[in-house]
Design a protein that fits this description.
This is Urea ABC transporter ATP-binding protein UrtD. It comes from Pacificimonas aurantium. Pfam families: ABC_tran. The strands form two sheets. A six-stranded mixed β-sheet has the order 6-7-8-3-9-10, with helices on both faces. Strands 2-1-4-5 form a four-stranded antiparallel β-sheet, with helices on one face. It is globular. The chain starts with a strand and ends with a helix. Helix 3 crosses helix 5 and helix 3 runs parallel beside helix 6. It is an alpha/beta fold. Strand 7, helix 7 and strand 8 form a beta-alpha-beta unit. It folds into two domains: about 160 residues, Rossmann fold (3-Layer(aba) Sandwich); about 70 residues, no CATH class. About 40% of the residues lie in helices and about 25% in strands. The longest helix has 15 residues. Bound molecules: adenosine-5'-diphosphate (ADP) and magnesium ion (MG). Adenosine-5'-diphosphate binds next to strand 2 and helix 1.
Length: about 250
Amino acid sequence: MSGPLLLAVDGITVDFDGFKALDTFSMTLDKGETRVVIGPNGAGKSTLCDAIIGRVRPAAGRVLFRGEDLTGLSEQAIVERGICRKFQAPGILAGITARENVALAARRDRSWWQAFGKGIPAEEQASVDAVLERVGLADRAEVKAGELAHGEKQWLEIGMVLATGAELVLLDEPTAGMGPAETSRTAELIRDLGDTRSVIVIDHDMSFVEQLAAPVTVMHQGRFLKQGSVEAVRADPEVISVYLGH
Ligand code: ADP
Ligand code: MG
């Protein structure tokens, strides 16, 4: 179910010393929508995430979130407005438990953890446990995050994103390094996430993209190429040609 316009990426260009990683790229996302962004390696997908979250500054164009121009805001300021990015590399703390990682994510203020050490305040236990349940890690809550399996670490990170309460979630290659069973489980989790959040998922694994059953935006060489259902973009001659590299 989609609502009013949430995000508008409006003609952004990101220039790395004359090389345009993004070239007048535009897309919009409605509140409650899940969108998949695909494109060959180097298409500019991760740079798009970086531009939305304020990690790189576009040379031209704007990013509007709930109508507010985010261009020029710091990453911290953008996160505070309700956008959260799950990185390609895991961002969990290995030495503390899965439950503690979720509790920490729920608090943006990490100094709280240093001040109080171990021990999640009683009033926060229930919401932390609800997140662990939702990502299927309830029975792994007391395991040190560093000892979780690869897939479990990714799901913990998705749980941490959930715990932040962010309205827009950016997931950059959430299935990297996963086998088919873990990939299916991740697709299920993201569909579940889509019930309460707006989500942009970046990936190039077509079997995963099919399982997400969401509209797809195709990028190529920093530009918008196509948008449509998975079936439509898969059958599109231009999309096939950029994927095959001719
Ligand atoms: P994707 O995620 O679609 O594989 P990226 O957004 O990571 O693509 O990269 C798009 C292009 O921009 C690539 O050619 C990449 O080499 C280049 N690029 C990305 N980041 C930088 C950077 N910091 N400096 C220079 N070039 C970069
Ligand atoms: Mg990338």
